[in-house]
Amino acid sequence: MSSGKRITEKLSDEALTAATGRGWAEWFARLDAWGATTRTHTEIARHLVDDEGVGGWHAQSVTVGYEQERGLREVGQSGDGDWQASASRTVAAPAARVTDAFVDPELRRRWLPDGGLDLRAHRPGKSLTADWEGGPSRIAVHLTPKGETKTLVGLGHLKLPDAAAVAASKEFWRDRLTALKTLLESSD
């Protein structure tokens, strides 16, 4: 089951060529010749940066694209084999108010009524981590202020069991972050 688009569907061949001088097929051929199927994610990305002169973000993208293309990882799977999903929303609220929506149980119930979130740590206006529903999975939330009154909320749901859980988690968190946005942008 696919949990989303492959990186080769998100980053066009034209955009990759413009940024790195090579398209997907050429990068895949170069990495095959280098023996990348026997290397770790970190080794491949480091090779692209150090030996091929590719910038960090594009080196990661090429590495993930190669691993997906060669069956070394699936969409939604990290380089070490863990499954993870992500969702984001920009909310017209200061980062401190967004933090409150996660850490204040009463406020949280208004947008995450069935959520089994057990807060582990938080840095007000910056980030938080929490265990999810008493299980092995966790969420990590990063807040990026966009001026004084807007915040980009980036949420990662980590340690999921499989691709089906990734797809369900993506849908769930998109819906819940929309509810968070609606709550924080409405007049209380």
Summarize the structure in words.
By secondary structure, the protein is an alpha+beta fold. Helices cover 45% and strands 21% of the residues. It is built from eight helices and five strands; from the N terminus they run αααααβααββββα. A five-stranded antiparallel β-sheet has the order 1-5-4-3-2, covered by helices on one side. α3 packs across α5 and α4 packs across α5.
Would you summarize the structure shown here?
With 188 residues, the protein is of the alpha+beta class. It is 45% helix and 21% strand.
How does the SSE layout of this entry go?
Layout: H1 7-10, H2 13-20, H3 24-34, H4 41-50, H5 56-69, E1 83-91, H6 95-103, H7 105-109, E2 117-123, E3 127-132, E4 138-145, E5 151-160, H8 163-185
Antiparallel strand pairs: 1-5, 2-3, 3-4, 4-5
Helix pairs in contact: 3-5, 4-5
Terminal Cα span: 41 Å
Mean pLDDT: 91
Any idea what the shape is?
elongated
Could you give the order of strands across the largest sheet?
1-5-4-3-2
Residue share in helix: 40-55%
Number of DSSP-assigned strands: 5
The Rg value, from CA coordinates, equals: 19 Å
| β-strand amount | 15-25%
Topology order in helix (H) and strand (E) letters: HHHHHEHHEEEEH
Largest sheet: 5 strands, antiparallel
